[in-house]
Amino acid sequence: MGTSAPEPNNDDICLSLDGVTISYGNFEAVRDVYMDIPRGKVTAFIGPSGCGKSTVLRAINRMNDLIPGCHLKGRVVFDGHDIYDRRVDPVEVRRRIGMVFQKPNPFPKTIYENIAFGARINGYRGNMDDLVERALRKAAVWDECKDKLKESGLALSGGQQQRLCIARAIATEPEVILMDEPCSALDPISTLKIEETMHELKRSYTIVIVTHNMQQAVRVADMTAFFNAEAVEGGSGKVGYLVEFEETERIFNAPNQQATQDYVSGRFG
Ligand SMILES: Nc1ncnc2c1ncn2[C@@H]1O[C@H](COP(=O)(O)OP(=O)(O)OP(=O)(O)O)[C@@H](O)[C@H]1O
Predict the structure, then answer these.
(1) Which of 13, 74, 116, 245 fits as disulfide partner to 20, beta carbons 3.0 to 4.6 Å?
(2) CA 23 – CA 5 distance, rounded (Å)
(3) pLDDT tens, 53-97?
(4) Contacts of 186 by beta carbon, 8 Å cutoff, 6+ apart
(5) Domain segments of the chain as ranges
(6) Pocket of ligand 1 (CB under 6 A)
(7) Of all atoms in ligand 1, which is nearest to the CA of residue 67?
(8) Residue 236 Cα to ligand 1 middle (Å)
């Protein structure tokens, strides 16, 4: 992606956060995060509100660039290159590292166009009908959509819209899919469908999900990162930090840190 010399490759690691500190103006939201996100697995970010989970997630595909005053120190290494290198195109980063948001946000276009639009902009030259079908199938929403491809994406149910948004993210052929609380606006049945879809998707993609729902982390994630926030000396706000990053089973059954134990067992604050 970049033109700098590639760093040594570790095939099992998809993305490395290397001393990442993110500020909004003068406010330091999250400090000094180091983590190696494994390839082909689901990684969950959990932790109390305001500890910086979404901020870190958005840093992984340079989505924070769109927030005026947001600034990152450190490096995010993907495919051997720092995605914040001056020579790297953020649009290309976001194509390779796609994102699904909290609220389903289909374009006000047909179901077909929701998929085809981004692919066309990215210069896709293959058979568009095939791409639309493939993406909708991978996102497990083909059966519900196949007879109404020319209808508006907004006419689908919330859960179907979210799977359409996953299909839209897949259509640009990313390697990573970031999901920011993708089920928080959905009913339990739609939530289970998305979770099942994630199990399928991790065969082809690396997934990072922010979730408030600890049961969801247990159900879907191979690895879990627990973030917390602490008061800053002399300051009024709190700064987020990564407490620990381990296999999900370990985080929920035998974490290294007392703060993690307190959080996962509900004895927090
Ligand atoms: N656009 C922004 N401008 C200024 N401050 C922001 C912005 N977005 C987030 N923050 C601040 O950064 C800190 C981390 O927020 P963030 O949304 O990343 O936390 P979170 O752990 O994802 O929270 P939640 O679980 O409530 O979504 C908070 O103090 C928040 O107020």
Answers:
(1) 74
(2) 28
(3) 999 999 999 999 999 999 999 999 998 899 999 999 999 999 999
(4) 158, 159, 162, 194
(5) 13-264
(6) 24, 29, 47, 49-55, 67, 240
(7) 1
(8) 15
User: 57 CA to middle of ligand 1, Å?
Assistant: 11
Nearest atom in ligand 1 to 55's CA: 18
CA distances from 72 to 99, 184, 230 (A): 19, 27, 19
**How far is ligand 1, taken at its centre, from the CA of residue 85, in Å?**
24
- Position 5 scores a pLDDT of 55
Task: Write down the CATH number for the domain with range 13-264.
Answer: 3.40.50.300
Tens of pLDDT along 157-187? 999 999 999 999 999 889 999 999 999 888 8
Report which residue type is found at 137. Answer: R
- Cβ atoms of 106 and 153 closer than 8 Å: yes
Task: Give residue 237's pLDDT band: very low, low, confident or very high (50, 70, 90).
Answer: confident
